[in-house]
Inverse folding.
């Protein structure tokens, strides 16, 4: 049993990270008052942008694999940020229904990236020749119990994202910027009266969500998928669920995504683990989604959702 | 009238966007569009295929539009469609009866299957105020995995693991005379079913007390409640009907256009239903027209792909751009208002000018 847990752990963490950063992006957007259903599409954009960049660099700049991957990840964040402008503009300046605009983002991302990649590679898929290599953290991986669980087969991206989560938690809770951002999602009219530029803060929130979702898509590509094929298999929607499950708090999201990461990893490897082979695989696969529904019911009474999320900002409203 | 202008301008922007995409990737947009429209309209057979491709979209579009009238955003049409189609397929494969008995039973099974899948989000919304957008997305993935394991377990094909057995012809919506009339196209009775359902839904929305109550809840939940309308009951009922319509899309797809269910895919028609409903301004007739338009884009893209080297995803890209512009229709609304305002002030200045002389 112990060896099984040891083997599963690194995979669960690997699966958690793209989910975590994407959900964190969603947090910034919803805290500023804009619901972002387009996270899935923004992840796909990130996945495509990084796959395209990395494969181009691999052929034109050989011998710099790791640097190429990092550049690809950066490009993905930039692409996600640029693409989220569409959603920001529609929902902040044009008063569009935010759910419909987000759905449009998902559709545009899925269609456009496959269209582009078919133009480039002819097949709609971009395969990476080199993935991101996992490594054991020197020294720490020898610590009994937690060493093998947390510090083996890790990726640099994992540590980077964890840093971003801690930093975001600090920014949202302790800084003036965080306070202003949150006030825009709770009661934008009051924020405006206090001199906060609500539209600007909402733009910042949506753009951060775009950059983070793009980052999530890129990390999914270089650690898990290894190939762009026009989808991130619903991870963006799962990130949205994690955001609600985590009750719109960074550390809550960390816990929720870890939970999803484990649930999915267990479902994926259940067939090769004797203790789990008796479980019908369908139950394990459905588990994360079913538990989300149950969590939604439980939290429905005490929901910590930003009160103005999804509402068009009308500065004349009282 | 205003809705029509908005929808048409969204389509126009979508086509312009598609042209820009084609030009930017080094293709000739005029040639692309010529083959795209020829592929959907060139002869009766291709026109039949266009109608057939549009059929499931009519149902999913109606499904989304109907829920929207009650203020509910049903993103779960894909899962409801999958499960409705699965229920119909079970009847079609397991029951030994003549086609006259089998097909009506399959229709009922499809409606019930879709309705069951939509009932849960409806109940959660009514009882616990759980937002239907998230719950329907979760239900989509639950449907995805349920079908993923249920099809191989109960309806496995002889050789292929990834799809169900083919339905016998009597358990499908296929009709030889119809297919022959359209030169061997795969257009089927699903189209007639869709047109009938469009009329029924239009009647329910516009002429019945039920339709009025559902719309009232959509306009303002609180005043509807104050007026004595059972809001929770309306929400659940609206989701049930919406889900039933999506279930019929599953029937039209898996027992009409095709004859089996593949596993490992969420039907794209579910999400396209949002596009259809939005472009059709949530009216049943509008849905019918916009579904057939999308059917044209989807059925023409294969021909275009064969005749040029433009990737077929251009059709999806055009649809996605259309949706973006339909979603941001406020922009169009402002332009229209500006036009109206300018004409009024012109007319006004003309009148006052007259008075001066």
């Amino acid at each position: 049993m112990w060896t099984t847990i040891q083997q599963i752990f690194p995979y669960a963490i690997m699966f958690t990270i793209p989910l975590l950063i994407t959900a964190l992006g969603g947090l910034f957007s919803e805290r500023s008052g804009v619901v972002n259903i387009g996270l899935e599409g923004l992840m796909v954009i990130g996945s495509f942008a990084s796959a395209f960049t990395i494969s181009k660099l691999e052929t034109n700049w050989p011998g710099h694999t790791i640097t190429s991957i990092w550049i690809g990840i950066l490009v993905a964040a930039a692409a996600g940020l640029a693409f989220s402008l569409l959603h920001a503009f529609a929902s902040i300046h044009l008063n569009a229904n935010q759910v419909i605009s987000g759905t449009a983002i998902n559709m545009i991302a899925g269609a456009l990236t496959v269209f582009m990649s078919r133009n480039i590679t002819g097949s709609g898929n971009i395969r990476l020749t080199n993935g991101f290599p996992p490594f054991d953290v020197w020294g720490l991986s020898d610590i009994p119990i937690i060493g093998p669980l947390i510090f083996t087969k890790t990726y640099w991206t994992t540590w980077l994202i964890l840093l971003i989560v801690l930093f975001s938690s600090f920014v949202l809770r302790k800084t003036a910027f965080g306070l202003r951002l949150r006030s825009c999602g709770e009661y934008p009219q009051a924020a405006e009266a206090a001199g906060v530029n609500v539209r600007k803060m909402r733009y910042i929130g949506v753009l951060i969500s775009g950059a983070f979702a793009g980052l999530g898509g890129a990390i999914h590509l270089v650690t898990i998928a290894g190939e762009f094929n026009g989808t991130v298999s619903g991870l963006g929607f799962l990130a949205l669920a994690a955001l609600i499950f985590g009750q719109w708090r960074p550390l809550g999201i960390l816990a929720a995504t870890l939970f999803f990461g484990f649930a999915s990893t267990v479902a994926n490897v259940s067939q090769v683990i004797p203790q789990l082979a008796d479980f019908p695989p369908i139950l394990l696969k459905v588990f994360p989604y079913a538990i989300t529904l149950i969590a939604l019911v439980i939290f429905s009474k005490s929901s910590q959702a930003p009160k103005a999320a999804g509402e068009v900002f009308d500065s004349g409203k009282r | 009238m205003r809705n029509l202008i908005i929808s048409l301008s969204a389509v126009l922007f979508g086509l312009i966007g598609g042209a820009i995409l084609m030009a930017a990737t080094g293709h000739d947009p005029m040639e692309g569009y010529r083959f795209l429209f020829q592929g959907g309209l060139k002869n009766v057979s291709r026109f039949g295929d266009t109608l057939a491709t549009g059929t499931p979209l009519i149902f999913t579009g109606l499904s989304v539009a109907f829920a929207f009238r009650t203020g509910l955003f049903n993103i779960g049409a894909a899962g409801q469609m999958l499960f409705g189609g699965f229920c119909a397929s079970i009847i079609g494969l397991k029951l030994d009866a003549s086609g006259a008995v089998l097909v009506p039973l399959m229709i009922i099974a499809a409606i019930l299957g879709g309705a069951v899948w939509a009932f849960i989000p409806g109940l959660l919304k009514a009882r616990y105020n759980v937002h239907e957008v998230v719950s329907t997305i979760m239900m989509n993935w639950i449907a995805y995995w349920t079908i993923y394991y249920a099809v191989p377990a109960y309806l496995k094909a002889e050789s292929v693991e990834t799809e169900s057995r083919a339905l016998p012809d009597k358990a499908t919506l296929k009709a030889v005379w119809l297919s022959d009339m359209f030169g061997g196209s795969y257009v089927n009775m699903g189209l007639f079913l869709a047109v009938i359902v469009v009329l029924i839904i239009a009647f329910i929305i516009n002429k019945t007390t039920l339709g009025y109550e559902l719309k009232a809840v959509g306009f303002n939940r609180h005043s509807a409640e104050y007026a004595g309308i059972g809001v929770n009951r309306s929400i659940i009922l609206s989701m049930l009907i919406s889900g039933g319509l999506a279930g019929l899309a599953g029937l039209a797809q898996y027992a009409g256009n095709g004859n089996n269910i593949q596993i490992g895919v969420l039907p794209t028609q579910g999400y396209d239903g949002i596009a259809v409903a939005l472009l059709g301004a949530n009216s049943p007739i509008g849905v019918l027209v916009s579904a057939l338009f999308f059917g044209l884009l989807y059925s023409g893209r294969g021909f275009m792909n064969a005749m040029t080297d433009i990737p077929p995803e251009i059709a999806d890209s055009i649809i996605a751009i259309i949706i973006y512009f339909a979603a941001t229709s406020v922009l169009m609304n402002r332009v229209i208002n500006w036009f109206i305002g300018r004409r009024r002030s012109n007319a006004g200045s003309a009148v006052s000018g007259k008075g001066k002389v």
Remarks:
- Residues 351-357 of chain B have pLDDT under 50 and may be disordered.
- The domain at 46-310 of chain B is CATH 1.10.3470 (ABC transporter involved in vitamin B12 uptake, BtuC).
- Residues 280 and 289 of chain B are 7 Å apart (CA to CA).
- Chain B has one domain: 46-310.
